[in-house]
């Protein structure tokens, strides 16, 4: 795996996180390996799990930063709490303010093309402006 920004998809649902990650990789042309999903809890229930998020972030970290996209309230709060604790997440980890699906696709496409963390964050944030009608 090359040194690219890593991307973590956090959802209350393991299936949603895995599907969003898979779709983003496919739409980026495949082959992007610096992505992980952290959905649901260890027992397979809906919810968020700080240990899963931490493990996913460390798994995709190559030193270029880690972008985390989250779905709902407690997922966002869990990531925010992890960001305040020293050494929980890799250096240069950011929670991106972006819609989960469109933002993840934009983040992965940009990261796969070699964009730095600033570019990945900007692309994901711009997904708020995608017009659907």
UniProtKB/TrEMBL annotation:
Residues 4-133 form the PTS EIIA type-4 domain. The keyword Transferase applies. One of its GO terms (molecular function) is kinase activity. InterPro entries: DhaM, PTS_EIIA_man-typ, PTS_EIIA_man-typ_sf. Transmembrane segments: none annotated. It holds the Pfam family EIIA-man. Keywords: Kinase, Transferase. It comes from the Bacteria. This is PTS-dependent dihydroxyacetone kinase phosphotransferase subunit DhaM. It comes from Streptomyces polyrhachis.
